[in-house]
Design a protein that fits this description.
Blueprint (H helix, E strand, L loop, with lengths): L1 E4 L6 H11 L8 H9 L3 E6 L5 E9 L4 E9 L8 H13 L4 E4 L28
Parallel strand pairs: 4-5
Antiparallel strand pairs: 1-2, 2-3, 3-4
Organism: Dankookia rubra
Pfam families: Acetyltransf_7
Protein name: N-acetyltransferase
Length: 132
């Protein structure tokens, strides 16, 4: 598996296909919104197999100094259970560095998976939900 930074280069259709396959709840039927999501991210880490097939994506927003919000972590089902998600998180953390915290808001199903990676559950947050 090859890991790389692909912000500004990841094809939105390819991203959308992996998000759709992974089951992550995102607006996959809105191509313009998915393209804007990719274009607006300043850290996009990908995992690709030997043939170049996109296996997974970690899409984040960060200042590379203090904070990083990992907005999307998705792995194609064909590659799940093989450490791809764990490696995408590790590569994201390596890139942002030790002085930068990594924050992720989880979907309900993987809530028990993240603590196994050494991630701490936090309860001190607030949200204004999107209107659409």
């Amino acid at each position: 598996m090859a890991f790389a930074r692909e912000e500004g280069r990841l094809d939105p259709a390819e991203f959308t296909a992996v998000v759709r396959a992974s089951g992550l709840a995102r607006p996959v039927d809105d191509a313009a919104r998915m393209a804007a999501m990719v274009a607006g991210s300043n850290l996009v880490v990908t995992a690709r197999d030997a043939s170049g097939r996109l296996a997974g994506v970690a899409r984040s927003f960060t200042d590379f100094a203090y904070g990083c919000y990992l907005s999307d972590l998705c792995v194609d089902p064909a590659f799940q259970g093989k450490g791809v998600g764990r490696a995408l998180i590790a590569e994201t953390k390596r890139i942002i560095g030790p002085g930068c915290m990594l924050l992720l808001l989880s979907a309900p199903d993987p809530m028990t998976w993240y603590p196994k990676l050494g991630m701490e559950r936090v309860a001190n947050g607030f949200i204004i939900r999107r209107d659409g």
